[in-house]
Amino acid sequence: MSADQQAMLPEVRNMANGRGAGDGAHQAAGRLAGALRSMAVISRVDGAALMLAAEPSGLRAVGGSTREGLTLQYAQQLVQAGPALDAVSAGHPVAVDDLDGHPDRPGYARLALTAAPVRAVLAVPVHVGGEVVGALNFYQCTPCPWTSRQIALGEHLAETTADLLVRLAARPAAGDGAHGLP
């Protein structure tokens, strides 16, 4: 845990709760969307999306690389079940080969219908300042097993996401490029 991450934890929480400053928040959203698209390409998946822990409502969809990713996030938010919530609760990655193939998880069947065409999800917790602040989700529109290599890459990209969130939260409200991302 870095001192920067610990210091910026309240600002990251503000981002999760939708509290941002005008243009700076819009610029942050654009940078986040670009990063998620890049993560999907790097991971060789159909897409990537991010949910952050919002108070008091639980996880909140904040971005996705595709429309399907946002649909997945909003479905998990609506159903209050899914890999992202499980990953945040457990504090470790949750790999689901097929959302429709989990009779032991009743919320997953509803999620499979609501989040269609997404079928396979890898949810990785995002840690900032030693706390889980959200989940980075990778998804496929066809059922597939998640390999240990994909899970390790997901964990690495979740660390990158944490660093990005800290940097975005640290940006001045006015969007001053002198202190922003390169």
UniProtKB/TrEMBL annotation:
InterPro entries: GAF (IPR003018), GAF-like_dom_sf (IPR029016)
Pfam families in alphabetical order: GAF
Domain GAF: 24-175
Name listed for the protein in its UniProt record: GAF domain-containing protein
